[in-house]
Amino acid sequence: MRKALLSAIAISALTLSACGSGDDSSSDGAPAASCAPSSGPVSLTYTTWIPGIENVVKVWNDKNPNIQVKVQTGPNGNGGTYQNFFNQLKAGNTPDLGHIEYDALPSFRVQDGLFDVASCDIVAKAKDQFIPWTWNQVSFGDEKTAWGIPQDSGPMALFYRADLFEKNNIAIPKTWEEYAAAAAKVKAAGGYITNFSQSDINQFAGFAWQAGGRWFANDGQQWTVDLTDDKTKKVAGYWQDLISKKLVSTVPPWTTEWDNAYNSSSAWTWVSAVWGANSIMSGAPKTAGKWRVAPMPQWSAGENVAGNWGGSATAIFKNSKHPYEAAQFALWLNTSEEALGLLNKEAQLYPATTAGTKYSYLANPVEFYGGQKIYETFAEAATQVTPDFTWGPTMTSTYTSASDGFKAAVSGQGTLEEALSKAQTSTIDTLKSQAIPVKE
Amino acid sequence: MNAPVLIKQRALPTLVMAVCTLYFLTPIWWLFVGASKNSDQFTSTNPLWFADFELFANIGDLFAYRDGVFLRWMLNSILYTGGAALLGTVLAAMCGYALAKYRFRGRELLFNVVLSGVLVPATALALPLFLMFSKVDATNTFWAVFLPSLVNPFGVYLARIYATAGVPDELLEAARIDGSGEIRTFFKVATRLMFPALVTIFLFHFVAVWNNFLLPLIMLSDERLFPVTLGLYTWNTQVNQIPELRGLVIIGALLSITPLVIAFLLLQRFWRNGLGAGAVK
């Protein structure tokens, strides 16, 4: 026993010292500031939580023996991986590439953690392949920079139960006004038109995005926070009205209760993003064949504006020693038909490139939706998302504050609008406490 | 004392115990029932009663998912936890024994420093440890989780208390007179006497490492190195994207608690002895 113990200690000490002195590759100079190709074979690390990503990366590795990509994984961004990225930035050992959702990119930008991929000519040339508003999500409105390469997007549309609407003779709402009127009829028929997720600020942000609300802006010097502009207030008032009249159910999102609301036909519609198609399929299997997809209801009849919910980018960290090769890989991953097809198959990612939304695998009829070619609706919505919605650099705290207020509002204490103004105040406080300049 | 009073005296504690038992066992029951259903029935049937019993099919699905990475996580957990608890117990026992049985300068100071380690929560240490391991390029390795898990100041405390009370000086002197070296005396004589305390330390340590979630979360980015807690958590954060994972997380959670249950059932006997013995002497 003593021997075993001693040798274990000796081994661990050896391993530590070996790690400390070895690995010369990490000491060959300061991080590259420009996007120049490296000489010789390159090995890249890529941290992401996309399910099945290994199968996609394997295709790249087989074709590019000189640029090998190693996948690392972890919990989803807000579940811990972003915090890990920040720790790794502090320690100077980030991976070369990281998966970052659009709403988290600004926080990495203000911490100066990212490499400006627009400085790579291959990226600058590829810019036109992306749907303009997705590019805006990585450039924050500045033409000359880009802090990642758009990966996927979440254009929104209306999922609805065609059978129930037809049976009860209710027209499919085309405007939000019609939607509210339909809500009353659905309630009379014994259901809820939808479930207003009591804590899902991202869905609400999608609604505000569609209505023209602009929560954040950055003029290069200062941030402006405006969670309570007129457009957002209109959206908040609209949903508050439905909640107060008890025309919507309010179970917590992504729970079994929530699945059950859809599976048991008590909720009839869901205004959600393209990836929601899969959520309904697996959460409400009993309702197969009964769903359809229509464009998102509009604020004024005849308009064609969509919101967006979700989406992410592949970012290159500033510590990467091989930004050029990393950019090559990220471009392949997010623009090639092969990679996008695999990403869609493995993880239902919906592409951010114009060509991507028209690929053949997205043209197929979907059996669960009664054979409707639902992705055509989303492809249209993807082009109708307005471009200039910007996220702030402290979204986590904004979400927490707003979500607390939303939960209170659905249980009858306070309103959505009050929740938003509290979130406004706390966001400004958080920005100040992190010494991020903010305009008041 | 007449009979009704006796019944009354027993009824209240029994009731309290029954309520507590129910309270603690219901989640486990829920977990077991949930793990036995398919995903369709999981949302649509009574959460506390069985539908079709598909436990074994579910276990099969779990083991097949992503090339059986779950089994790898279980193995990792057992290595991290079992290995660290075993080695950590030996270290704590040696340390506690030395503090109890040898007189040397700075003994109390040393003991107080070690003891103050009890006050520092593991979560607070995770980030500094990460930065230190980063300096030597040792993050994302087995050792990054294993080495910090070895230390257990509370175990040192328990071992010292127990060695003071449970290992008579006379016996050690006798061993020395018989020509036994100090290390040999420790392993041949002292550890035998301290055995119940060692089991207690082992169990405490086992549970502490098993539950230390933040350290692996911060240190590891290679899925193949994850302990099962981190692995299941990772899946659970992806349920929005891949709803099928919910079923796997539930069945995985059920399987992941079995080693803890087994450890407790096997060691419980010693453990109770250990707690009592230290307290009375």
Automatic annotation (TrEMBL), chain A:
<keyword id="KW-0732">Signal</keyword>
<keyword id="KW-0449">Lipoprotein</keyword>
<keyword id="KW-0564">Palmitate</keyword>
<keyword id="KW-1003">Cell membrane</keyword>
<dbReference type="InterPro" id="IPR050490">
    <property type="entry name" value="Bact_solute-bd_prot1"/>
</dbReference>
<dbReference type="InterPro" id="IPR006059">
    <property type="entry name" value="SBP"/>
</dbReference>
<keyword id="KW-0762">Sugar transport</keyword>
<keyword id="KW-0813">Transport</keyword>
<feature type="signal peptide">
    <location>
        <begin position="1"/>
        <end position="18"/>
    </location>
</feature>
<protein>
    <submittedName>
        <fullName>Multiple sugar transport system substrate-binding protein</fullName>
    </submittedName>
</protein>
<keyword id="KW-0472">Membrane</keyword>
<dbReference type="Pfam" id="PF01547">
    <property type="entry name" value="SBP_bac_1"/>
</dbReference>
Automatic annotation (TrEMBL), chain B:
<keyword id="KW-1003">Cell membrane</keyword>
<dbReference type="InterPro" id="IPR000515">
    <property type="entry name" value="MetI-like"/>
</dbReference>
<dbReference type="GO" id="GO:0055085">
    <property type="term" value="P:transmembrane transport"/>
</dbReference>
<keyword id="KW-0812">Transmembrane</keyword>
<keyword id="KW-1133">Transmembrane helix</keyword>
<dbReference type="Pfam" id="PF00528">
    <property type="entry name" value="BPD_transp_1"/>
</dbReference>
<keyword id="KW-0762">Sugar transport</keyword>
<dbReference type="GO" id="GO:0005886">
    <property type="term" value="C:plasma membrane"/>
</dbReference>
<feature type="domain" description="ABC transmembrane type-1">
    <location>
        <begin position="74"/>
        <end position="267"/>
    </location>
</feature>
<protein>
    <submittedName>
        <fullName>Multiple sugar transport system permease protein</fullName>
    </submittedName>
</protein>
<feature type="transmembrane region" description="Helical">
    <location>
        <begin position="245"/>
        <end position="267"/>
    </location>
</feature>
<feature type="transmembrane region" description="Helical">
    <location>
        <begin position="193"/>
        <end position="213"/>
    </location>
</feature>
<feature type="transmembrane region" description="Helical">
    <location>
        <begin position="78"/>
        <end position="100"/>
    </location>
</feature>
<feature type="transmembrane region" description="Helical">
    <location>
        <begin position="12"/>
        <end position="32"/>
    </location>
</feature>
<keyword id="KW-0813">Transport</keyword>
<dbReference type="InterPro" id="IPR035906">
    <property type="entry name" value="MetI-like_sf"/>
</dbReference>
<comment type="similarity">
    <text>Belongs to the binding-protein-dependent transport system permease family.</text>
</comment>
<feature type="transmembrane region" description="Helical">
    <location>
        <begin position="109"/>
        <end position="130"/>
    </location>
</feature>
<keyword id="KW-0472">Membrane</keyword>
<feature type="transmembrane region" description="Helical">
    <location>
        <begin position="142"/>
        <end position="163"/>
    </location>
</feature>
